[in-house]
Amino acid sequence: MEKLSSIEIKDKFLSFFKEKDHMEITDSSIIPKNDPTLLFINSGMAPIKNYFTGVEKPPYPRLCDIQPCIRTIDIDSIGDKHHLTSFQMLGSWSINNYFKEKAIALAFEFLTERLNIPQEKLYVTVFSGDEELGIPCDDEAYEYWRKVGMPESHIVKCGKDDNFWGPTAETGPCGPCTEIFFDTGEGESYVPGKEFDTKKRYIEIWNAGVFMQFNKNADGTFSKLSFTSVDTGAGLERLAMVLGGHKSVYETDLLAPIKEKIESLLGENKIPERDILIMTDHLRTACLILSEKVAPSNEGRGYIPRKLIRRCMMITGKSGIKNFDFSAVIEFILENYKNIFAKFSTNKAYIVEEFEKEHNQFEKVLTGGLERLATIKNEASKISAADAFDLVTTYGLPIDIIKVYAEENNMELDEKGFEVKLEEHKSKSRNTGKISGKNLVKDLSGILSECRATKFFGYNSSICEAEIVKIIKDEKECKTAEEGENAILVLSDSVFYAESGGQCADTGIIKTENAEFEVTDVQKTSEGIFIHFGKVKSGSLAVNNQVECIVDETRRLKISNNHTSVHLLQSALQQLYGKNVHQAGSKVEPDKLRFDFNYDGTITDEEIGKLERIVNSNIRKNISRKVEIMNVQDAIQSGAMALFESKYGENVRVVSFGDVSNELCGGIHTEKTGNIGSFVILSAEGIGKGIKRITATTGDDANEYVRKKINDLNRIAKLLKVKPEMVLEKIQKEISVKPHKKEETRPISESDIKPLNAGDNTDCGYIEVSEGGKKTVSEIGKLSDKFGKILVGIVGTDKKQVIVAVPDSLVAKVQANEILKILMPKINGKGGGNKKVATCGTDAKTSDIVPEIAKIL
Questions:
Q1: Crossing angle (nearest 10°) for helices 273-290 and 326-336
Q2: Which of residues 275 and 409 earns the better pLDDT score?
């Protein structure tokens, strides 16, 4: 079996699938776009999953790429021979094109003929079927594997946990899959009918096909999809391990240099091998996340780099290693892997700064925490719940390092007691900071049991007087709230709208002559008690104080305009798509509105324009608001639109705007539609099977959005030297296939070669020509061989083609495609080639290109 580098594997993979009529697409950022279900891109399919659901149309039915991925689900397994938190996924896809037979044939051909892996070293798994799911064994995949020559003793049937790919939500596309494993020869060999050892002997190297042929329905049943697709993925690091003849992914050219750098910096300090592997993986992944300008933090995406960095620091800290040079490792990773991850170069300063910030911050914490642990160890043989809680909350040590310390020093740890204390602490902390009360309302039921429903005057006013009925701090009833304290106020009356029905809460102030309380959130109980969350900005408040409530009216006006716009949008959708369209969710905020609705079709740009025109037409009509309190049944029979009828009381509030909109609604609305000003749709997207989401904005926010778009268009027109109305036509002409230009009649000669200031290297030069084609590439290649020089051609004036040619006499030492890979990130170029000749396109100036080439050579 031929040993291959990671670069060679990537080149062979893309070349193979492009030969098989697949379009190579550009890899995506590891930060998902418009997908709140993912923290990071965790598979090759993730950035393009809308192609598989029909929400978006793919650029071509067969695709391939190499996608960086982050996957932390197996973080506890890091340090074994093949698990990683970040990796590069080799992906190929068929969307409503070929299916199982072709996918299996391609996989087998690529592995056995292009990568030359002996067939006897390969095993495959197929779905064995599942009675509970009601889906039979995937006999098709089984037979197709037999057809390509895989012996039955190497085809293993596995259950749904291993070989059935389910939807990421409760419903959606799914299907059986087939995976390929490499036999490492370590441990017991597989015997048909016995356990298939995928942890030690057989290493998965490729999911050769998730066969998306079913749709999981809401009732748990499965139906056939309108079209089938194939999703494949192979981890580059694992393939490099197998094809490099290595026992671990950490011995590959993708990770070994980092491991060796860490070992050299450790010097005489000895730490377990597994810890070195963890540091190797975690520091590379941390760099990758930081390169996307995700700063370490305690929540969301930022928690992952924080956890990775701190885990590495804990490894050196618990081993008593002081002043380990983590920065040197980070610098090494950024410098040596910038050709793979371009943002390692462009965002280097940010990565280094954020890493050092996190390192310096945790270094102080870690030192104090480990010293405290040493003290506890000297005083007792047990870490009590109180000690563990103190170490976590005061010293900032994560519980996992405390557990490791206890195990390594034969100490008991009261983990259950710690969890009880931590939960008590979390409960008390729920109303600290900028308090949000949605999760706290139920916990206050005992304190609020004697309160009557709050009288709400907010529909017709933004100011009212009230009495403080209760003050609550840290979930305890108090008599007063002092300056600087976070608190909850329960009032006799209120004008503050409490969050409900998709509309956000009002904000504002509650004040006396000597005190002011900033309202940041308002919730209400099922009994109608309004709970005002916020902070005492000045003075002191006490129970029974008479106060004045003042809503932030500017903010409320924007909210009321957006809420009315939701009603107008729903009317427009029903006018365009039919009365069967109904609301599936909404959110109304000051700066934008969001409306979810049922619709199976694709929303076109033309339809977005129609919706905007219908809504804006009704805004210009300046229709007056009408509000009625009616019996719920009478309201529905009169034609008022209702949602979730069981949630309505006997009497309901009906808001209507002429004949355009008539809905049951408890929200705040503008008096006349003309107050909205204008309405602009920002986006329309699919968020689930049969559910679409429209996000829009109104008034000044809409005008500002449109003005920015116009300014952008004018700038583009100026750059293209055309009128704004001609921009689209100009761009279409630029990207369309142009007729071949006549090749330069004057051949390129030795006199055209200019010297490159490349130090002692005299075997190189560059050539500039104003225009050219295939003949130019050929001529530069011939000149390179003739004079034994590395030649770089720069062809064109604005958009340039860069040609790198290496003579036969030097190709053993340096390759054209390797030179180009180093050059492209520096000049924002895209392209490829082989060892002899490689080309790329770029917008860079010749004066910028030449010095970069000189540095490389």
A1: 60
A2: 275
